[in-house]
Amino acid sequence: MALRSNLTPTVENDRETMKRDMDLIRLLLIQVETGEEPRGMDQHPEEERAYNAALLIEAGLVKGTVVPNAEGGIHAAVITRLTWEGHDFLDAARSETVWTKAREKVLKPGLSWTFSMLLEFLKAEAQAQMQKHGLLPPQ
In total, how many domains does the chain have? Predict the structure, then answer.
């Protein structure tokens, strides 16, 4: 899956203004796994997709290559497959119910969070869902 961007992220006070978008990160992982564009992907411009795909590569959730442009921005990000960690994250984030809860409790504006905190929350919620449905014994 190749994502291209002809734009260099806008620089303001020597800092990139592109943001990590966890909803888009999740959609990109779903697309890599299924090979199909998930609902909602079309709401994200190509340069935003390429930037977040590059973040996925940097984080080790996918294997791929980031192709820089002449200005040092991102020309393209080519994702070849999910890694073990990418599969784990997607398995924890796949459920709309669990993802919505994570967005409300962890990803809401004004809260500070890290990726590992989000992943731990998702795993705990997935475990709670499995216990609720009798797939795991209660703790």
Answer: 1
Task: Give the CATH number for residue 79.
Answer: 1.10.10
Judge whether 126 lies within some domain.
Answer: no
pTM over 0.90: no
**DSSP code at position 41:** G
Q: Which of 93, 79, 100, 81 is nearest to 126 (CA)?
A: 93
Name 139's Cβ contacts closer than 8 Å, sequence gap at least 6.
131
> Contact at 8 Å (CB) between 39 and 23?
no
- 3-state helix, strand, coil split of the chain in percent (to 5) is 50, 15, 35
Domain that holds residue 24: 2-94
At 31, the pLDDT band (50, 70, 90 cuts) reads very high
What integer is the mean pLDDT of 53-82? 93
Alpha-carbon distance 9 to 74, whole Å?
Answer: 8
Nearest to 122 by CA among 78, 81, 90: 90
Structure confidence by residue, pLDDT tens digits, 80-101:
999 999 999 999 999 999 999 9
CA–CA separation, 85 and 127 (whole Å): 17
